[in-house]
């Protein structure tokens, strides 16, 4: 097990466990429900900056509508279409509800196309996640997806991979209110209701600081998935207490058999 030092609000430090699989197994073994973020922990939905064309399309639509004033410098540069959606929601008001609905439809269409595309390419599927999902389900855990993406995209991807049947519920972005995307805990709360579990009964697996904050606000234990140093550092800075870099040890046969 490796440990690194993580900064914490208020100036205190905390040790972040990296690849502490004994601790992770114990946490997962005691969980009645496991909540997976989708993009990252299950697949790479937009590899190689694949989301930028969607974000650029949204900006063009906003400008053509005459609402470019709602976008600041950060939203003009960001590759994430969710950042653009959030800006229109927060600053647009009732006058831009129709525009927001149009933008939401464009983002969902882009996510659906991406989900189908990456499902067909093994290299974009998170290694060993299929085995982990089957292992957790076989041990009796109830599974859910909690994502800022459209639930339709997550469902399409999981269905194509033959994994959708393992999930009790797939909860994603609410088309009418992108302000409830993580770090707001809404999507986790909805999933817990569908699983009929309390926060103390569940664990979330996520790969961003936004996931860390959403889990904390929902009262759910958190396991970070850091596929590279950039992701690990982001989770560290968000004060994730536990980070893994591979699912492989969690899919090993001896743990799957209950040891």
UniProtKB/TrEMBL annotation:
UniProt GO cellular component terms: cytosol
Matches recorded under NCBIfam families: HAD-SF-IA-v1, HAD-SF-IA-v3
Gene3D superfamilies the UniProt entry points to: HAD superfamily/HAD-like
Record bears the keyword Hydrolase: yes
Gene Ontology molecular function terms on file: phosphoglycolate phosphatase activity
Claim: DNA-binding is one of the keywords in the record: no
CDD domains: HAD_like (cd01427)
Native species: Streptomyces viridochromogenes (strain DSM 40736 / JCM 4977 / BCRC 1201 / Tue 494)
Keywords: Hydrolase
The protein's name in its UniProt record: Hydrolase
């Amino acid at each position: 097990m490796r440990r690194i030092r993580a900064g914490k609000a208020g100036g205190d430090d905390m040790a972040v466990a990296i690849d502490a699989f004994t601790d992770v197994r114990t946490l997962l073994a005691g969980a009645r429900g496991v909540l997976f973020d989708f993009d990252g922990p299950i697949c790479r939905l937009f590899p190689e900056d694949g989301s930028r064309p969607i974000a650029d399309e949204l900006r063009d639509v906003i400008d053509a509508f005459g609402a470019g004033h709602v976008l600041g410098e950060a939203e003009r540069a960001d590759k994430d279409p969710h950042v653009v959606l959030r800006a229109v929601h927060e600053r647009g008001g009732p006058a831009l509800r129709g525009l927001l609905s149009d933008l939401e439809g464009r983002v969902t269409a882009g996510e659906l196309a991406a989900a189908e595309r990456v499902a067909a390419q093994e290299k974009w599927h998170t290694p060993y996640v299929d085995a982990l999902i089957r292992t957790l389900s076989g041990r009796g855990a109830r599974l859910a997806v909690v994502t800022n993406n459209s639930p339709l995209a997550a469902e399409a991807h999981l269905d194509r991979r033959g994994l959708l049947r393992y999930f009790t519920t797939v909860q994603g972005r609410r088309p009418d209110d992108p302000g409830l995307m993580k770090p707001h805990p809404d999507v986790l709360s909805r999933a817990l209701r569908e699983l009929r579990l309390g926060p103390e009964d569940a664990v979330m697996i996520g790969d961003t600081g936004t996931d860390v904050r959403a889990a904390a606000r929902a009262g759910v234990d958190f396991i970070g998935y850091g596929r590279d140093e950039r992701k690990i550092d982001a989770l560290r800075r968000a004060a994730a207490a536990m980070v893994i870099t591979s699912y492989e040890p969690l899919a090993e046969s001896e743990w799957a058999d209950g040891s």
